[in-house]
Design brief:
Blueprint (H helix, E strand, L loop, with lengths): L12 H22 L10 H19 L2 E5 L2 E6 L5 E6 L3 E8 L1 H5 L2 E8 L7 E7 H15 L12 E5 L2 H29 L3 H27 L3 E5 L2 E6 L4 E6 L4 E9 L8 E8 L12 E10 L1 H11 L27 E4 L3 E6 L3 E8 L3 E8 L1 H6 L1 E8 L5 E8 H30 L13 H4 L8 E6 L1
Parallel strand pairs: 17-20
Antiparallel strand pairs: 1-2, 2-3, 4-5, 4-10, 5-6, 7-8, 8-9, 9-10, 11-12, 11-16, 12-13, 14-15, 15-16, 17-18, 18-19
Helix pairs in contact: 1-2, 5-6
Length: 465
């Protein structure tokens, strides 16, 4: 792909952008005309006008959008009344994702999303290009980012694991079936005890069952053919049934990892692995918290989770865990046996939850604050909880129900270890950015990559509830 000046998006882009909205308007107009919704007075002129307005807006957006690769910069211009001109330095590109909604996939098109280092949004969107054009542009941007010839093909990736369809369907059907069974049982009780209960319960029960089926279908369709691979750019994920997504999670942006083991999954030895990634991924996931939570493994076995943990935390060890003291039973009688936490010089680990067991790993280099929280009952029992916070909402490792003296000591120790971990991360990041023998484009993401992004200065605080 050579520079030939400004380029436009695919001519069928307006059809894909407006297709879903136009179909929704037409469906509502059809239901209204048939009398199922509204008075059923036949076709109305504003239905046609709304369809034309949506389609016209998509065409106008296509006419005023253009892009080009200008040396070391990707430029994207859009907007009519308010012109938006974006210049994305290729050297700062963190990830380039390909998204193929169902209609775009049927027409052989794909959306390209560019994310920059240190940014919390999808900074550049090209919706839509041909699939071949999007893949070629993605390879070109990544090659230029690594200082290689733009014609260099993408490096090979190694598949780590994939989720079988049967297991994915089972993980979605189990909770949906439980909810449906509870609804049916409750409906049967109401019908047996209430005169005319069948009429009162029938319609809500049907809607509840439809909702359960919809939730299960949505999970299966979005996570279908879930495949995890590793490449020099990070962890690559491909998923989707009707519409597909090919996205990259850069290892340096991972703030924390969480393994979830619901009660219904434990007899099957299944777990879910999630990562909190710095920033949020654009308009589809609006979140001002500084992090977005993504599934690294929607449902898998413990050995698969361990392989992915070794990739996401390449330089981390596995700290030994310790339990809270026996008097913590008075504070947490139901979850006491499942509470555990530990740390070493690079990583903090915490386990909480009885019905929904969660194990959280937070690299100390990504910690932003350490807090000691002590409620009234905890003060009476001589206990306290220490929170190690990373970027994002509720992204933390919790050392719950610790002895008060131990908790106060732990605050200072974690703050000191976090400062040391950030210093080491900064040194590794400088070494990775300026290697003596040049960059190895085929290297797997590792400790140097993990060190490329470090947290702001540590804050240690103590508070009382």
């Amino acid at each position: 792909m050579k520079d030939t000046g400004w380029r436009r998006l695919h001519p069928l882009s307006p059809l894909v952008r407006s297709g879903r909205a136009v179909l929704a308007v037409l469906a509502l107009a059809g239901l209204s005309s048939s009398g199922l919704i509204g008075a059923g007075t036949g076709s109305r002129w504003w239905d046609v006008a709304l369809v034309a307005l949506v389609a016209g807006g998509a065409v106008l957006n296509w006419l005023v959008t253009r892009w080009k690769v200008d040396g070391a910069t990707l430029r994207i211009e859009s907007g009519l009344l308010r012109r938006d001109s974006r210049q994305l330095p290729i050297a700062r590109i963190q990830a380039v994702d390909l998204v193929r909604p169902f209609l775009a996939r049927m027409l052989g098109m794909a959306e390209l999303r560019v994310r920059l280092a240190g940014s919390g949004d999808a900074d550049g969107r090209l919706a839509y290009l041909t699939e071949q054009g999007a893949e070629a542009l993605r390879a070109r941007l990544l090659a230029a980012h690594h200082g290689l010839d733009p014609a260099t093909p993408e490096p090979a990736e190694t598949v780590v694991t994939s989720v079988p369809t049967g297991r994915l369907a089972g993980s979605a059907v189990l909770p949906a079936a439980l909810l449906a069974a509870v609804a049916v049982a409750a409906g049967a009780v109401i019908i047996s005890l209430t005169p005319g209960g069948l009429l009162a319960v029938g319609a809500p029960l049907v809607w509840w069952l439809i909702i359960c089926v919809t939730i299960a279908w949505r999970r299966v369709s979005t996570q279908y053919a879930f495949t995890v691979a590793v490449s020099p750019d990070g962890v690559r994920i491909r998923r989707g049934l009707l519409g597909t997504v090919a996205e990259t999670i850069p290892v340096p942006r991972i703030q924390a990892i969480r393994m979830i083991e619901p009660l219904l999954w434990r007899p099957l030895h299944w777990c879910r692995l999630e990562v909190d990634v710095a920033g949020h991924l654009g308009r589809d996931h609006p979140e001002g918290s500084g992090a977005v939570r993504k599934a690294l493994l929607p449902v898998g076995r413990p050995d698969e989770a361990r392989r992915l943990l070794a990739i996401a935390l390449p330089a981390a060890g596995w700290p030994a865990l310790s339990k809270p003291p026996h008097r913590a039973r008075w504070k947490a009688p139901l979850s006491y046996h499942f509470l555990a936490a530990g740390h070493d010089g690079t990583l903090a680990v915490a386990v909480v939850g009885r019905l929904r067991r969660e194990t959280t790993w937070v690299p100390l280099a990504k910690a932003q604050s350490v807090r000691l929280v002590q409620g009234p009952l905890q003060r009476r029992l001589g206990l306290a909880t220490v929170h190690l916070d990373a970027a994002g909402r509720r992204v933390r490792a919790e050392f719950r129900e610790r002895r008060q003296a131990e908790a106060r000591s732990l605050v200072g120790e974690l703050a000191s270890l976090s400062r040391s971990a950030r210093r080491r991360a900064s040194q590794l990041g400088s070494t990775a950015a300026h290697p003596a023998n040049g960059r190895d484009p085929g290297a797997q993401p590792g400790a140097a990559g993990q060190a490329a992004s470090v947290a702001p200065p540590m804050n240690a605080s103590q508070s009382e509830a």
